[in-house]
């Protein structure tokens, strides 16, 4: 089997090479479809400088007879890290979650194992679930906890609906479920499980897994092929939400189950507005809310997984539901959920279209999308000042405060994942000064978004630390931000942002260690420790006394090295084999593929900018002091755009001034000068007197700006443990 896989990979590589060669020849053929006879809109040579490939990562596991897993270019780093060999804990986690250890009878076990399609001729009825219903007071407590702690972000079930279910079940002195559809009971148990997931009870994990299994079993009790209701859709949604909240290794489960959820919703016609069928007003609002929750989840999940979405907006005709019934939102201003739906509908379709174009995409299109995302207005009640002091504070209400933070993260995470590949290309092409590169807007955008998310979450953590520690969504974005910050320092230690990026990286990693302890993957702290060490060593070597401060560009062979799966965190381009399931130990060594100037000797000491993580304290118990006196003259703390001949128009300058007055004050002095980089000048290119001469490059050549390959190469260097 191994030999066969190797043979197929070789054939695939040969085929791809032939296609690249064919596309690079000046034959006038289209690069998207090499065999097409369609004439291009412009000469191929004129299009190539601004075109970048969009492929992704494919992992093949020989232990599952060629089982494969794909993540695209926009994938979140937490999902890309699953392509790396496991650390040995996955099997233990799965055994702990196995329903046979949860104390449910054999009949329910059979139903759980039949989820999601169910048993065709099921011999069981709902009575087997009666012993597992909690008392009324307990059920009400868990329902309230769910709506307080989780429904602020997603609302597939309205509060009045769960109250109706509670009244139906507990209408007498004991639970009565004869007249209640099994899928509605599944919604009930999912609410119970999710409420327990946010409780402070130390022994809640076993019971919440039991409730989750009961929810799955009740879906299987009434097969979805026989008929579906809104409760069916809600049940699938809540099951996915529970897995997403509690299991860090369930990304594929969530992806597949939510795909079924979308199909069930389409069977019901939720993609069309209920007013066309003269339904009751409450039912219309219920259907609208449910559809837009599904569309929002599906779109964001597709984006962070790097895969095509299940729903396309052009195939729908469903109106937005009425504005949030939120007492904190007054007048005609949009509430969080209403804003969330509109932002998703306005920005995500174009983001996904850009991310999944079957071939090359234009950088100018990306910058137009950047402007659209950045200028999308957040309601004033949901705005917050990131610079501290006077301004718009975080709400004292934890629910509203997390909605404030989520608005920031929805925009900044979107921008970060869009720009990071171009950011890496700029670092590769001009590691001495990436701000003079034609993709310099992506360098600024990636750095700015990473910092804004770190600053925002730290501000929220000071006000609402306890609830925030349970939401992996926020910490996942911090994890991705750390990767971008470390990439900047490692790839361009002489950049004017490098010192600040290293300080932010140290602070963010320590903050991540403290705040994410309840929800993070165990392997993530080890990954961050390696990232920090590699960035620190690169920065130290560059600024060491006697260093020539030169950074040599890696050779084409270095950029093309795939290694094991190191670099997957950055969106590797190619095929990754998993011959074993054992993870690399912390002491494992690999040869470095990102070489630096031989005239830059490695300094015996290292700089520690910011607090250390527990991994680093064990490794480096006595860190060296920072030579601040020498650093002051080596790192420019302000950036002068005039040195690169970059100018902005008066309209852009006015726009940048207004934008910076509300959002950029949280940056230190150097960040106040980012506006003069022409950051919002769409169609931005390298100026005529820039230090780097931009040359047209053909896709498929060693120097072609393949975004997955370049981003992967930087992370591969960061994850290199040769210095360990």
Automatic annotation (TrEMBL):
List keywords of the entry alphabetically.
Nucleus
Compositionally biased spans, kind Polar residues:
22-35
Alphabetical GO CC annotations of the entry are: nucleus
Q: Name one GO molecular function term.
A: DNA binding
Outline the segment boundaries, as ranges, of region: Disordered. 22-45, 576-607
Q: Where in the cell is it found?
A: Nucleus
Put simply, this protein is called Xylanolytic transcriptional activator regulatory domain-containing protein
